[in-house]
Amino acid sequence: MNNVETLIPAVGVITDVRIDTPDIKTFRVVTTDGKKAFDHRPGQCAMLSIPGVGEAMFSITSSPTNTEYMEFSIKKCGCVTEWLHQAEVGQQITIRGPYGNPFPVDDVFVGKNLLFIAGGVGLAPLRSVINYCRHYRDRYGDIDIVYGSRSKADLLDYKEIIDEWATDAGVNVHLTIDNAQPDWDGHVGFVPNYVKELGFDTNKTAILCGPPIMIKFTLEGLISLGFDKTQVYTTLELRMKCGVGKCGRCNVGAKYVCKDGPVFRCDELEELPNEY
Amino acid sequence: MRKCSLNSINSVFAEIAKAATLYLPVDGKDGSAVYTKWEEGKVWSNALNTVRSPKDFFFPQTENLMAFKTAGKNIEIIDTRSESEDFVIFGVRACDVKSFEILDRVFLSEPVDTFYAARRAHGVIVSVACTKPSETCFCGTFGINPAEPAGDISAWKTETEVFFRANTEKGVALLSKIEGLTEECTDEAVDAQKEKISAIMKKLPLKDVTTDAFGGGKTMDYFNSPAWDELSQSCLGCGTCTFVCPTCQCYDIKDFNTGKGVIRYRCWDSCMYSEFTRMAHGNNRLSQKERFRQRFMHKLVYYPENNDGLFSCVGCGRCLAKCPISMNIVKVMKKIGGENK
């Protein structure tokens, strides 16, 4: 989009609502004439709003290679998200974007082995990247995906992970949940520990997203495995209003997360005040 | 250079007001100056500066962005913008003129904020030199000369006359409209006034406040300074400093349900408020110390880093005069700057 009226959204329609977990739903959105609202790159975000309720920034979870619609995996945790969770198919919302910088999928990542690490709803922004890389599979090396959540029911995109990602050649999926439960025979434990247990080779580029505490410990884990911070990418989330680096809300150091992020290489974060 | 007698300034105002809405500082009931729409009978204030900065003219405290009509599951977006009208702001001090450049760099950088840009395009700025800079003034710290204010037209006011010099095309156009009410003159009287002002500047209590210590490459030293604890200790988080500040530009976007529809508006916000960064999953600046630090780090370190060393303060002194606990950017600069020299 990037039109001049950057604060003025377009009308979008929710055409599908998928219940992913007890508190995460995935919404499919198109414009009123049934098209994709705008093109985006993996890792970019969009502003969704419900008039009278509010506007909030969400990562676009569908891959840019999907030319028909966009998807947003949204966890119920505030005013806008509570409202969205009650919305039915056919509900109109507003949408504007895309905002922020994408993951460097077309340059830095090309030819690399990729290690995706996500916790909880942190998989939402990475799903866009994962599916983009699966689409252009021959451009990248091996793909490892480590994903963990509180319980089996809290694993986002579980069906897609099992049916599609895990069956792809050269894609290794490593799932974990926080506590053991009867119908789970996979790994049990937190993501940072699981990453260390798996003990990845450092010939990979890591892409990390999850709760701040999980990012912190996973990054420490990767460094103890010999990774350099320049090999690790993450995406940040701060409160945003404008999406274009003017309202001042997501300012950290000299950066605006909406415009200079949300994707950062971990060594870039080191130069910023720890306020994210 | 052109001039008119101070006695005839009202006819100049009347002429300007024929073609554009004219705003100028007028004394309010309590004696403090407020930008007011000029009409016959309004008198140009002698006060040094207005209580509120003129940023409202380009970035109003609240403005509607759009409206929505909702029916069932459907939403209609309604463009509520009206054509901007031509206006003239008369009597802007040098510090406030500089603040427009600082705001421009935010709102006119890509993607351009068209709400701001429309007003900026329709506004003409007539500045006026400060004959008596006051003890809270420190514009000199930021290289601003109050005797030589920028703007589309620069003006100098003596006890008997007002002098005008056009600086831009807009200024030339406006000055030509009042040509019949002004006469060509030499620079002599203005030069004499400039000298007087510069003599006052040398005596101001804050003349030695310096930005020398601030600059790129030491962000974390400033950020981690132990002095923030003490400096922020008494901060009430009232946000007065941000509201009177001519360069503070953080804003909020909110929806208001009128009963008949929804209006989405933008309003000033303050990084001093606890809500500013609060999200569903937490707040990245939990304490007043962190919020206080953000405001000054932004003005003295982050903004300059992004804007070729330009500081986001013009030394107008409003925050010095208005802070209920007498904390201000000068104290911060002395303390933090002193440590990092």
Briefly summarize what is shown.
Chain A is 21% helix and 31% strand.
Fraction of residues in H or I helices of chain B: 25-40%
Tell me what portion of residues of chain B adopts beta-strand conformation: 15-25%
* Molecular shape of chain B: globular
- How many DSSP-defined strands of chain A? 15
Characterise this structure:
The complex is a heterodimer of chains A (276) and B (341). With 276 residues, chain A is an alpha/beta fold. Chain A has two domains: 10-99, Translation factors (Elongation Factor Tu (Ef-tu), domain 3); 113-235, Rossmann fold, CATH 3.40.50. Helix content of chain A is 21%, strand content 31%. Chain A contains seven helices and 15 strands. The longest helix of chain A is centred in the middle third of the chain and has 13 residues, at 123-135. Chain A is globular and about 50 Å long. Chain A starts with 9 loop residues before the first strand and ends in a 6-residue tail after the last helix. In chain A, 54% of the residues are buried. By secondary structure, chain B is α+β, with helices and mostly antiparallel strands. Chain B has two domains: 2-59 and 83-201, no CATH class; 219-339, no CATH class. Chain B has helices at 9-19, 94-107, 114-122, 169-177, 188-201, 219-223, 227-232, 240-244, 288-306, 318-322, 329-339, and strands spanning 2-5, 21-27, 33-37, 62-71, 74-78, 87-92, 123-128, 153-157, 161-166, 183-184, 251-257, 262-268, 278-279, 282-283. Chain B has an eight-stranded mixed beta sheet. The two termini of chain B are 43 Å apart. The mean pLDDT of chain B is 93. The chains are: A alpha/beta (276), B alpha+beta (341). At the A-B interface, strand 6 and strand 13 of A face strand 4, strand 5, helix 6, strand 11 and strand 12 of B.
SSE blueprint:
The complex is a heterodimer of chains A (276) and B (341).
Chain A: E1 10-21, E2 24-31, E3 45-50, E4 54-59, E5 70-75, H1 79-86, E6 92-99, E7 113-119, H2 123-135, E8 143-149, H3 158-165, E9 171-177, E10 187-188, H4 191-198, E11 204-209, H5 212-224, E12 232-235, E13 251-252, E14 255-256, H6 257-260, E15 263-265, H7 266-270
Parallel strand pairs in A: 7-8, 7-11, 8-9, 9-10, 11-12
Antiparallel strand pairs in A: 1-2, 1-6, 2-5, 3-4, 3-6, 12-15, 13-14
Chain B: E1 2-5, H1 9-19, E2 21-27, E3 33-37, E4 62-71, E5 74-78, E6 87-92, H2 94-107, H3 114-122, E7 123-128, E8 153-157, E9 161-166, H4 169-177, E10 183-184, H5 188-201, H6 219-223, H7 227-232, H8 240-244, E11 251-257, E12 262-268, E13 278-279, E14 282-283, H9 288-306, H10 318-322, H11 329-339
Parallel strand pairs in B: 2-6, 6-7, 7-8
Antiparallel strand pairs in B: 1-9, 1-10, 2-3, 4-5, 4-12, 8-9, 11-12, 13-14
